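Subject: sequence -> structure tokens, single chain

Hey, anyone have a minute? Need the predicted structure for the following. Not urgent.
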Amino acid sequence: MIMLILSLIVAVEHLGIMLLEMFGTPQQQAQAFDMPLEYVKQAPARVALANQGIYNGMLGVLLILSFLLFHGAVLVIVLRLLLGFIVVVALYGGMTATRKIWLVQLLPAALALLVTFLI
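Reply:
Had a minute. Here:
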């Protein structure tokens, strides 16, 4: 049950990040991602954020679909894979973009991943 709750929190979080990256105002994006407003207003940055939003949204959707499509050991393996991807990406993002990513994305994903190994 804890695995389900933590994984769903990570999924919803990634869907929220997708909405912010794809449809947020430049002011919201600059504040959320610690980027200069002038940069976020540029067309190439808007396209890059929207592209990144698709990836985050798909991770959220895949986590949710995992609970509908898989059960037992297969579900655990799929969750480990997806959560592992998120942990790696969040580690890199925290090193290259903003340390806030470690708290917002890495910590929930790492906790959910850890729980998959404890069941």
